Each structure stands twice: as structure tokens, then as C-alpha cells.
Amino acid sequence: MGFQLLEKIADEFGTPVFLYFEEILKERARSVWKAFEGMRLVPTAALKANNNPVLLSILKEEGFGGDVVTPGELYAALKAGIEPSKIVWNGNGKTHQQKEFFMKNGVKIVNVDSIEEYEKLWKDADGVDLFLRINPDVEAHTHKYISTGKSEHKFGVHYKKAMEFLDREGKKFKGLHIHIGSQITKAVDFENAYEVVAEISRKFGFSQVNIGGGWGIDYGDGQELDLGEYRKIVQSTLKDFEKIYIELGRYIYAPAGILLSRVHYVKKGIEKHFVVLDTGMSHVIRPALYSAKHSVEFSEYTDEEGPYDVVGYLCETGDFIRRDIRGKLPKEGSLAIVKDIGAYGYSMASNYNSIPKPPEVLVKEDGTVKLIRRGETLEEMFRGIDF
Ligand SMILES: Cc1ncc(COP(=O)(O)O)c(C=O)c1O
Known about the structure:
Strand 2, helix 3 (53-61) and strand 3 (65-68) form a beta-alpha-beta unit. The longest helix is centred in the middle third of the chain and has 18 residues, at 187-204. The relative contact order is 0.16. Strands 1, 11, 12, 13, 15, 16, 18, 19 and 20 form a nine-stranded mixed β-sheet that branches. An eight-stranded parallel barrel has the order 2-3-4-5-6-8-9-10, surrounded by four helices. The protein is globular and about 70 Å long. 29% of the residues lie in helices and 24% in strands. The chain has helices spanning 3-13, 22-35, 53-61, 71-79, 96-104, 115-122, 159-169, 187-204, 227-237, 250-253, 286-290, 378-381, and strands at 17-21, 41-46, 65-68, 87-89, 109-112, 129-135, 157-158, 175-177, 208-210, 243-248, 257-267, 273-277, 296-298, 301-305, 308-311, 320-325, 328-330, 335-338, 360-363, 369-373. By secondary structure, it is an alpha/beta fold. Pyridoxal-5'-phosphate (PLP) is lined by residues 46, 48-49, 67, 90, 179, 182, 212-215, 247-251, 343.
């Protein structure tokens, strides 16, 4: 995408603005289908990665359902027109009150996170497809905060304990669920987890499985999941299943979105310089939270060399978007593009430092540009306060 169009969009909608590309979103959705060609796949989009109903409605047209954790995510999925029969309910803290809301809205597929959850909510359930989340105790080689499949993590039932439990209650379940983490770039880590789930499923005669998400993308360092290798693993480990659910967030959404921002200041330091944007960790929390490295590109550069950090304007040293860039400094006033922010960008944004959330804009396949969520106003940020 050329900077001319980006300047036009920045003029029309202001900066910062989350910008998404329909074409990329569709391409990603289609390559998910391709990886499972010949198998009966039920793909769902993880709303935790992105909850914009307009984007989800595009994925719906590509045959996707939704993976939701909260009533808020369910609301967004229904708003996007996802049929309740294609909505999977995840989470490790489901309540009776939430259950009422989910059942009232016709959700019928539930990933049960613990034996305690089963006893509390599902023991007598009827007409709901229950999947037991297994903790396979395997390594995912990803950041420790987004690794979920080791016994020390809070998710799922340890596979050994699960087998004892299924000996008693197996008949109540449709199958197993597994999700070992996010941003996984080594196919072998999936293989280890899928083998565990396939073996237990065979033992209990389950013909359906939910394999979660986790596909790792290239954030600019050349590391990403090799889908050819992944397909081979799926073909060998999951061949006996009649139906496979998958829940993908990052892989579909991340490359389809950028954050368009502007350089406020180029501040000269001693060891390094600081490029200050009109956004920050309230819109891009992943670098502070997970040491994530988003690539940043500018519309205009000076002849002066870095090193420099790209930072926000919030009152935190942790408010950085990318650190230690070597190369030319950008010009003050130039556009900054934070790449691969379509997943876990807007959905993780906060109002920290009382900064309203920015708008979301979609570049459609035909090149037209559409506002898909207004930016928040100050009044909206302080709504409900009455004195
Ligand atoms: C249960 C579950 N399913 C699916 C996902 C989506 O993961 P990803 O965005 O890595 O595809 C997550 C996110 O961590 C998750 O917790």
C-alpha cells in the first residue's frame, strides 16, 4: 500500500487509526481451509484477537464461525451474524449467569476447562456438545505469558487426570479440546500436542476434536509456522477424526491490520534517540506485555542515523513500540506504520492515561475505504459518571 493512500486516510480519519485490509483477511482465511483440504474442518475466528463484527462478518462469508470467551465476545459474534451453531465457548471461569446468557442465545459447543467447571455447570447439561480441554504438558516454545499447555499453566485438565475422569464421565463428552499457546512457529510442538489428544480420543472413541489455535506468524524476523510441514502433521496425527474444530486468531487477523500513526517528535538522547508517536501502549500493549517486536515503517526519513526507540506519549518507561532500531531516523510529522497489529491490537487496547480508543477503518477489496468503528470520544470514555 502506497503512502499516498495512507496520507489520504490519515487526513480523513486522523491518526492514530487501526486500518485493516479485506483482501489479506480473506487470503488468510482461505489458506486455513487449504491446510485442511480433504478433512472436515469447522474453522472459528478467535474474537479475543479481534472483536470487530464487520471483520468477523467477512470471515463468516469465508465459512468461519467464532471462538468466544465472554458475553461481550458472544455479543460481537452474534452482531456479525455468526450462527450460534458455529460458536464455541471457551474460558476457565464460566459462571451460571454467563451460562444462562450463552444458552439463551443458542450456543451449543462448550470447551470445559476443568472437572470443577463440569461439576458446577455441565453435569446435567442436555443438548450441549461438551469438549474437555486437555492439558497435554507439552512445550510450545513461545513467550511464557502465551504458553498454555504445560502442567504449571492454569488451563485444561492434565491428561493423566483427564483419563481417570473420562473413565467415569466420558460418555457426556463429544470430544477433547487442546490449545497449547499462541505464536507457535515450530510445527513439531503442534505434533506433540496433537499426538496426545489423538491417543486419548482413540481410547475413548471420540470422533471429533478441537485443536485450538496458535499458528505463529512472521513479525518481521523471518520466523513463522511452515504450513506445508503443519499440514503433514495434521494429516498424520488427526487423520482419524471425522470433524476438526480450529480456533485461530493471530494468523488470520494480525497481518490484515496496521496502526497508522504520526511522528510527534524526534527527541535526541545520549545513547539513543526517541521517536515519539501520537499513540502508545494504550493502543499497542504487546511490546510491554510480551516483549513483542512489531515492525515499524515511516513515510519519510532523514539522513541521520539512529539507534532509536519508537515510543508513545504515555507516562511509562514501558511505553515503547519498538526499541533499538538501527538505521535512519524518520522525519518529524511523517507517518508511522505499526505492522501486524490486526490481532491483539485493538482488542487489547485500554484507556490508560485517559486516552480514547482510536477508530477502525477497512480498506475493502474494491479499494473503497470504510469506517468500521468510530473513535471513542472523551464523553464516551467517562460515560455513566453522575454527580
Ligand atoms: C483457547 C484459545 N483458542 C484459540 C486462541 C487463539 O490463538 P491464536 O491467536 O494464537 O490463534 C487462544 C488464544 O490464546 C485461546 O486461548
